[in-house]
Every structure is written in structure tokens, then in C-alpha cells.
Amino acid sequence: xxxxxxxxxxxxxxxxxxxxxxxxxxxxxxxxxxxxxxxxxxxxxxxxxxxxxxxxxxxxxxxxxxxxxxxxxxxxxxxxxxxxxxxxxxxxxxxxxxxxxxxxxxxxxxxxxxxxxxxxxxxxxxxxxxxxxxxxxxxxxxxxxxxxxxxxxxxxxxxxxxxxxxxxxxxxxxxxxxxxxxxxxxxxxxxxxxxxxxxxxxxxxxxxxxxxxxxxxxxxxxxxxxxxxxxxxxxxxxxxxxxxxxxxxxxxxxxxxxxxxxxxxxxxxxxxxxxxxxxxxxxxxxxxxxxxxxxxxxxxxxxxxxxxxxxxxxxxxxxxxxxxxxxxxxxxxxxxxxxxxxxxxxxxxxxxxxxxxxxxxxxxxxxxxxxxxxxxxxx
Length: 379
Description:
The mean pLDDT is about 95. This protein has a three-stranded antiparallel β-sheet. By secondary structure, it is mainly α. The protein folds into two domains: about 10-215 and about 325-350, Orthogonal Bundle (Citrate Synthase, domain 1), CATH 1.10.580; about 220-320, CATH 1.10.230.10. It is built from 16 helices and three strands.
């Protein structure tokens, strides 16, 4: 058998959820280009599209938004569990653990029941932002702020964090960031979700496994590393030496390159536009100037190899300008990507097949058993 490291290019499932053309820089959700959705839709409508396969009617949309709005609250036992986590626990570890715990409060005897699918989607989309915002406050010694049913999805998230109402334009920019992060075909976290889904585990367990995969620095955690890199550089004048030293030492430039895209990631283009809009509202940020110089110098060296900015390069600057701590960036990613995971979970279990890949064995055969008293020390 031929081993394909990382299963690169190996199809793992059939899907109608999303499509990527890495050479042309195209991303579509259910056949609609990402540029169209960012321009015309919002995160909850896009979530419905991904999960249920079509843009909702007015009645379907209003019910979906209303159900999510009225299921944002967390049971007090969940809050009590979170209060016992170490204050220095990473937000992604807290999110993964808490989502797993949610499954005990919302069980089902029939994992294939369509009504349960809708209920699970509503609970997860509604409660993940509450978990993230609550941990932001709990670890700082503050009580969580209850959701406000009068506020829209994104405005409410910031309210739960800060007890302040953000400007509508700021909420709109953040909402569009969520659309851009909602889905991206068969990535590591989606594959992890499908492996667990194929066992017919409950959706909370499935989403918890996806969260674990997303938390790694080579996946969802990459936007944290981009900000750390930009802050380490500090000044635009220091960029060239920094980048060229990295390349000389064959070190990775965070926020550049993608396993699929061999041109500019379309999400990165839109994120830079959103960042420019945010700068008009919030004012200039030095990190953007550093980032532009990093992009310029890096592309001088790597564009010919098909390495361009990816979705992580500008997203972190936006989140930082919105007052979101760096270690919460991946939690924001998860708030968005939950929709894509749910879409793939719901799609896959309709024609479920338990994942059971093979391996290439490289060990020995027919070795004798050596009694304990006759074994020599090793190492």
C-alpha cells in the first residue's frame, strides 16, 4: 500500500457543503461564492444555508434566529463547572470541555432524529459564544453577563464580554468575519468531526473533537501566532531582516501558505478590506503597517512558489482592534466554524460509514517473549 502523509489530496467523503478551487482562489458555500455571502448575508443566515442546504425562507430565518436568541443562556451547573477550571486555562480548552459537558444536558436516544439535529444546531450556535464570553469574565474574577435577547447575535457577544454595546458598524464587520470562517471543506477539524460522527456519537461529542483539532497551532491557533509574530517584529523597518532571517533558517512565516490555495486566499482579501473599514472607525494601528510590510517582503520571496496570505493573516489584527485577547482568537474561529462542522456532521450521518483506515506496518514479526528476569536493561 502507498502511504500518503497527512492524507494530502485523498478524498475522505462526498459533500455538497462547500467548494474550493485553490488555483483560482474560489470559495463557495452551497454553490454561492463567499464574496456574495459577505456582501449580502449575515452569519446566522449563512449558518442556516450551510446546515440545512438552502437559504431560509423569511419564516424559517425568523424562527432560526428566534430559537438561537432564546437558547443563549447556560445552565447554572455549566457555569459552576467553568468556575472550577484553572484561571490560566486556555479558552479553547475551556470551550472544548464545556461543549462536551453540554451533551449531558441535552441527550437524545435517536442520533438520527431530524428534530434533534435542529435542536443541537440551535444549542451549539447559541451557547458557544456564551461559553467564550463567560470564560473571558470568569478568569478575570467577574460574574458572567447574561445574554440580552434584545440584541443581535454579534452585538450580544460583545455585550456578554464587556457589558457595553458596540457600534452597529463594528458588529457588522465582526459578523462578516464569522461568515468567512464558517466553513472550508475537508480541513483537519472537519475530518476529526466526521471520524467521531461516523461512530454515531452525539453531536456535542462530535463538536468537542473538532474543537480539539482546531486548537492546534497549525490549524485554528495560527491567527494567534500571526499576532505574536507582528508584535515581535514591532516596527515596519524591522520586517525585512526578520522575514529574510526566517526564510534563511527555513522557518515558517505564520499567516502564509495553504494546503489548498496556491494563490491569494479569497478570505484574506476580504478580511483586509474589513480591516480597512475598521481602521476608519477605530483609527490607525501599527500592526497593520507591519503586516503590510510583512506581506510585501514575503511575497517577494514566496509568491513564485504559490505561497500567499491565508485567512489567519489579517483576522487577528481585526480581533485585537475589537478588544478580544489574543488567546481567545481561536475561540472566535470556533464560534464561526461550528456551522460548517454541523453541516458536515448532518450530511455525513445520512449515509454513514464508520471510518476504519488502514496503515503501513513497519515493525518486526515473530519475536520471542522474554521472561522478565532474563530481560536486559535498555536505554
